[in-house]
């Protein structure tokens, strides 16, 4: 689908079919492509077909990058067309599994919220916050929707602000405060004949639209390219011109961590790491009509991988494994002193 295609002009069924065909051509990207196809099927109203795609992914012999995310999307979709019991069972399973990725938590909590299960939604958001944000000095960009959703539900429940609500307020970049955006009385103003109330609501809606546009303007992380030791050795042996860029694997890993910390310190959010392979890099170079030995191609390759959903969020969640693949926790590896 062209990015400039108006949403109302999209043939969601045709777009889903195109994405399924593309997934068959590029099996390494099948997970991301089929998730997009399922989203189009949901938008077309064919929710059973979307569930079929989710089941296809979950039954695939290949390991999924984000199995909890697929289950969360399946649960949300099932509930929308009458399969409440199955959806609840999947949601309970996700909560019990306690994934370190915030996205499944947000999806299941919002599903509960949309069906007026506000207490359960608040409990789910809070479980995720405790798991992912306890003793975390700076919440990763991917956890912001978790905090904003929690704030919204607690506002509807009339709960008093706590530390995480205060943190959500601090992270909010909208010119309108979260308390105002999440005010349950806002719906009343939509039926008001008072021009001042209507103008205030228009300002709030514009602020929300600005926030959504800001999030959509960065659909994938700012990603740094990581080469495993074997891949890096093969890369430098094949293309000696890259030896200056990668003097050693240890130096390469240290540069990745230092670069990400510098970006974070400068205020850049939504950071990630993409892992390269030599065959993939060579194919990308061929598609660009450029030599793989061209250093300028490396950041373009990283951006392409991130756009294809290959980025892993940095820093890893609390207690998560280090991004370098050592098997140690991040705090005991490259996260020491972070």
TrEMBL record:
Tree of life domain: Bacteria
SUPFAM superfamilies assigned to the protein according to its UniProt record, in alphabetical order: TPR-like
Family matches, as InterPro entries: TPR-like_helical_dom_sf
UniProt protein name: YecA family protein
